[in-house]
Amino acid sequence: xxxxxxTEMFGIKYPIIQGAMQWLSRAELVSxxxxxxGLGIIASLTFPxxxxxxxxxxxxxxxxxxxxxxxxxxxPTARPVNYEDYFNAAIEEGVNxxxxxxxxxxxxxxxxxxxxxKVMHKVARIRDAKTAERVGVDIVTIVGFEAAGHPxxxxxxxxxxxxxxxxxxxxxxxxxxxxxxxxxxxxxxxxGAEGVLMGTRFMASKECDAHxxxxxxxxxxGEADTMIIQRSIKNAERVIRTGYSQKVLEMEEKGxxxxxxxxMISGDRQKAAYISGDVxxxxxxxxxxxxxxxxxxxxxxxxxxIISEAKLISQRLYNMRDTA
Length: 324
Fold this sequence. Notes:
Layout: H1 5-10, E1 16-18, H2 27-35, E2 40-43, H3 50-63, E3 68-73, H4 83-92, E4 97-101, H5 109-114, E5 118-123, H6 126-134, E6 139-143, H7 158-168, E7 173-176, H8 182-190, E8 195-198, H9 200-203, H10 212-220, E9 226-229, E10 237-240, H11 243-253, H12 258-265, H13 267-276, H14 299-319
Helix pairs in contact: 2-3, 3-4, 8-14
């Protein structure tokens, strides 16, 4: 059950994908997702050197025999980045699934296709999904407004965005944003998606390398405890509502420049918060689905729980049919 083009294309058991979450998408979490039948993804650009990325890929391979992917986000960075170096490192280490995001992967498609890797591209707009298909991407992930991180500037929720994407492209669509349990999983499939990508749900897992205080804090949050910042720099980001993130928003409303905002939204601050559990001095990302998270199970328990309950939901829906 739940076999789709994505499970066949990636060679995975279940169409459940772990979002690339900056410093949290390390070997322990990635391998746990892949071992449980999903697809784990390493976030490559959080490794300052190619050598470190290679080491993490090797570590992940030592922890799972199942497929996993490497994400390369094509956005401007604080340090000079040669994206081809990251692609080549992943390819040379035997990774055959690459996720891209941020900008069109068109300049790198020949490199990726020549290496015979499967390319999954993440977008927040329908026109970008169409572009991804046109340039040869194998799978497109559509990110709804509910999602953590960067859900785009158009504020369209998943219930509308998923079927719009499915209607607009022929390649398989992965749904992201607002999904954390079996109900969201089944709903996404019903809307035409062939898989789901979850980030916030896997943040609150035993294998996630975030401080226990941070994970326990997530359990206290509700669906209304997130907010959007960075609209002023056209890079909208959904973050947890705190005094610190509110201060960032107030700076934007007063016309703060990019140079003034950068020290406040620095990734280094977020990394330090994940390590220490002290979230008072950083913007911390989470999706609205945080309101549906009530415990911190293992990754295996999350995935097997979703699949088990999804089967029951599917049976319930089947039993509701009119047989007259």
